[in-house]
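Deliverable D5.2: sample structural annotation.
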Amino acid sequence: MTRQAVVVGVAFALLQCASAAAQSSNVEFTVSGSSTVRNWTCTALGVIAVTPATAATPVPGFANGVQGATVTVPLKAFKCPNDEMTQHLNEAMRSGEFPEIVYRLEKYDVAGAQAQATGTMTITGVSKPVTVPVTLTPSDKGVQVEGNTRLEFATFNLEPPTVFLGMLKVGPQIRISFKGTIAR
């Protein structure tokens, strides 16, 4: 093999790797729920990293599909309506011990602009399978990804927070929502 053939082969391999590199974008992440006093919502900015596939099931905005996707949200990034609520959220989620919520895509099924994303959600060191309905909308800026699901606190070995000597109790379910645009 000539030196030129080796150089062309290496360049081709690098181009292949570059095209399959993960594309990271910010994602707006929301956790909401109810309590005996009022409904609540806390928001954070996380990151979604998507690795395009080279040949798989097409997804809107990704002609060759998606090889992998990971959503990572730092718990200390959450902002609630007031500092006390933010503190309660971080205590309940044990953010000092487990600083992130992470979702890793394992497979997906697509029907039009809708997908069922199945993967593993890790909260407080507990990893559980979670399926999330996702909407994918191609745009000039990339692909808008949006989804939400309900989770039980108990699934992740968490107890809903209680404050004021038990007078205020958070409900047993939370809704996790996310929205972001992945640049192409």
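Annotation notes: The CA atoms of residues 59 and 111 lie 9 Å apart. The chain is about 15% helix and 55% strand.
The annotation will be released with the project's public dataset once the embargo ends.
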